[in-house]
Amino acid sequence: MRTWYHSWVAAIRIARRDAWRSKGRSFLVLAMIALPILGVSAADITLRSSDVSAEQELDRSLGRADAVLSGTGMGNTPIHQKPDGNGLAPADGDEDRAVPNSPTDIRAAVPRGAEVLKDSSGTGRFRTRHGLLNATVHELDALHPMAAGRQTVVRGRFPAKAGEVAATTRFLEDSGLYVGSRLVPRGMEGTDYRIVGAYELPSELKTYEVLAPPGTLLPPLEAALKANGMPGADVTNEYYVRVGGEGFTWNMVKAANAKGVVVVSRAVVLDPPADSDVPLYQHETSDSYTSGGSGVDKAALAAAATVVVLAMLEICLLAGPAFAVGARRSRRQLGLVGANGGDRRHIRAIVLSGGLVIGFAAAVTGIVLSVALTLALRPVLESALGERWGGFRLLPHELLGIALLAVVTGLLAAVVPAVTASRQTVLSSLTGRRGVRRASRVLPVVGLVAIGIGAPIALFGSVQDNNGYLYVAGGSALAELGVVALTPVLVGLFGRAGRWLPLSPRLALRDAVRNRGRTAPAVAAVLAAVAGTVAVATYAQSNDAQARQEYVAQMPDRSGTVTISEAGGHRQVPAVRAALEKELPVAVRADLDRVVVGRKDCELWSDAPGCGQMELTTPKENECPLHTADDPRASFPEAERRRLAKDWRCVFPESYTSQDVVVADEKLLTTLAVRDPAAARALQEGRSVAFDRRHVKDGRITLKLIADTAKARQTPDGQEVPGIRKSFAVHLSTANGYGLRVVIPPAAAKAAGLQTAAYGSYFTLDRLPTSEERQRYDAAVDRIGASPEFRIESGYESGNNIELLALAVFAGLVTIGAAGIATGLAQADAEADLKTLAAVGAAPRIRRSLSGFQCGLVALMGVGLGSAAGVLPGVGLRLAERRESVSRYEQSLADGWSDPGGVPDVPVVIPWETLGALVVLIPLGAALLAALVTRSSGALARRAA
């Protein structure tokens, strides 16, 4: 035991000394191992630190209160709730029963003698330096002890009197305001509030919120909005209570539920009752109220394990040749160890100790840097995640596991060089002779078997309905490992092309083939990186082609819409139209009105008092039988459902617009690119135009005017909603209406007695607007104080260009790195050959050109093999998607659901541009880089015998 211990101590000391002498090579290997460790450690620290405990979450939501009580909006209808308050149902279990739509008397559920803090909340729009910004408004005494912990003051102080407010830091950043500014709510232009503080919500850093003392902002804002005919602030109330003792118990929660009040109790959340004591679970099991993601996703774990294994393989393939370089340059030293009584175990121990030393150093470096980097980036990460962390947590057992991964990776990378070095005789090590190297006969067989098993598995997965992706990914990974195992044989096959090459590339290729032990790992590393890049690029580009095919334009190219649906918005439409005409290159503008039932200032689809709605009716015979049946699967056999799914009555248009019946003239047809002279003539003659024949009967369409939207929604199913009917003669056009179903000319609307309000405009552009023009238009709309829905149709825009470029850069870096390592090893091996060339009068540039060709050939072989290997998983994943898409389509037809697009087309596109960049540019760049960094002449020395 003592001899074993001392031999390893000596080996580690020798390895440490060699690593320190060869700083460049050691740093290269350390960086390759430490960078993944840095990323994994930083991700682990970030994940654990961002995890907020239940106690911390309750402090952030309840402050120092024992519970918060809120209403359901169903009056005081008794309810049952989950212990955490995130799920509820009527106490009688009948969720389909009509319930009152009225406020809940929350104070009735507050226990006698409890300390109470009221929190009123609503919504408002505030004028900023850039226009208008929506924000949540809270009226709360933030200085009350129970409110401590809910908000954190960043600058200034909390408001204490009327006329003062505080705002979240995110609101101030985006609004351009600051502590000391004046804040003006929309609708209260004559009143302003002084911002006295900036605060943040620890769990909601991205929230726009304004805080005011109780009764100072929401009541006057509500009154002003209603006076201007705009919707109110939607004020709701919550009550924070503190009861002392054991806190707000589960029995107290059930008592509050009996009065229609929802409770989030600190005591109940931290110590929930048994499922048998939860009345809600008597109707449904607790599983019905939990998301399906609570268990461990085995597929995700399998994918993560596969990624880790492949990443370790990639590092070993890259770092292994670097260790081989060190062993080759230290072969005289290793020969001296053998000459002084050391055996093969000692040689292996020295080389393995190099991996151990580098792996340990990489583990320490990666973890220390990850801690420092995470600390430095904590504010940035918290801002990106949108919440403050629960603390800075370092879990030793997880970090030790990550460190062990680095050490194991270093050891694995040194295994092959260690075995190779131990097989050298003492004489060959001392004299520098390389001896005869025999290629392994087992490895190619293993590679062929892996390919023979992996490729069929991947193809099998492409035709499976369930778990097909897993089969494709697993089979492709196995096949790729098989190609890696075959790399030495494939490198040998490349050598046959040497007879047709000039001197320098022929020497480089001959050297690469003769020394497959160092060439194959580098080629395999490039192969693995490029294969992954090609697979992802194939999948991404194919997916992009499919998205381009499935893209549904909402308007003709270079056309757009601007509409205002909010309450009172019709007053701002003329100014928005003028700004559109002034700031953008508008060619044709068609103005739209919408049919209004009740008050003109009602928001679209509003059910506020005095607000009605217009409904485009469908004749009985034009209704889709599948949509009118209570249960299509029970009412129709599968063959009939499939037939009806393709019936014109059951196929909906692909385009959509929030208002499908508009009042406009024939200029609208120009903006819609409708080339139908009969449609234009019909509008000129006062007849309407319909684009959906389901609503047309005997050349006419019918509108139903419903006076009371809220009352109409309470009409029982099966009964017709009462309303006044208006009928219009129409011309049925087969053109694409882009979501519009009926266009009524202004004269026909006036003759029918319809009330209309300005809605917006459709327009066509001479060209797409520049960024400066868009900014000027947005600024003009901000000055108006409007919030229109604005859209310009510019066609499909691909989002894959940046991703594909990043993948190509990544593959290029790995390729150049691996090829550079192989070139360094080749130079160490070929030093004697270079001396011979110099001795016989070869030009000095031969050294540089030979180095460039060696690096370029390794890159070319790896890129070529990787490109071929990477196509398989990319194509397999797309075929699996095609199978799944067709299966979903067939199932939707069997269920009676129509699909206007028909059978889905899932194309497979080979990324030729990416392949061209990989096959041509990367090897060429690697060769030029290696040639540039190599000295053209070396020191003269006597050639070893």
Description:
The chain contains 31 helices and 22 strands. A six-stranded mixed barrel has the order 4-5-10-7-9-8. With 945 residues, it is an alpha+beta fold.
Topology:
Blueprint: H1 2-21, H2 23-50, H3 54-62, E1 67-71, E2 79-81, E3 88-90, E4 115-127, E5 132-139, E6 152-156, E7 164-168, H4 169-175, E8 182-185, E9 193-200, E10 209-212, H5 218-227, E11 236-242, H6 250-257, E12 261-265, H7 266-270, H8 280-283, H9 298-329, H10 331-339, H11 344-385, H12 396-422, H13 426-431, H14 442-461, H15 468-485, H16 487-494, H17 503-514, H18 516-550, E13 559-563, H19 573-583, E14 586-596, E15 613-616, H20 625-628, H21 632-635, H22 638-645, E16 661-663, H23 667-671, H24 677-684, E17 688-690, E18 700-706, H25 709-713, E19 724-732, E20 742-744, H26 746-751, E21 755-765, H27 771-784, E22 789-792, H28 801-829, H29 831-839, H30 845-895, H31 912-933
Parallel strand pairs: 5-10, 7-9, 16-20, 17-19
Antiparallel strand pairs: 1-11, 1-12, 2-3, 4-5, 4-8, 4-11, 6-9, 7-10, 8-9, 13-21, 13-22, 14-21, 15-18, 17-20, 18-19
Helix pairs in contact: 1-11, 2-9, 2-11, 2-12, 9-12, 9-18, 9-28, 11-12, 14-15, 14-30, 15-18, 15-30, 16-17, 16-18, 17-30, 18-28, 18-30, 19-27, 28-30, 28-31, 30-31
Question: Top keywords for this entry?
Answer:
alpha+beta; 31 helices; 945 residues; six-stranded mixed sheet; disordered C terminus
Tell me the helix content: 40-55%
What is the strand tally?
22
The profile of the biggest β sheet is: 6 strands, mixed, barrel
Straight-line N-to-C gap:
42 Å
Shape: globular
Radius of gyration from CA coordinates: 37 Å
Q: Round the mean pLDDT to the nearest integer and report it.
A: 79
What oligomeric state is this?
single chain
Question: Low-confidence parts, pLDDT < 50 over ≥5 residues?
Answer: 285-299, 939-945
What is the overall number of helices? 31
Q: How much of the sequence is in beta strands?
A: 5-15%
Arrangement of strands in the largest sheet: 4-5-10-7-9-8
- Helix/strand-derived class? alpha+beta
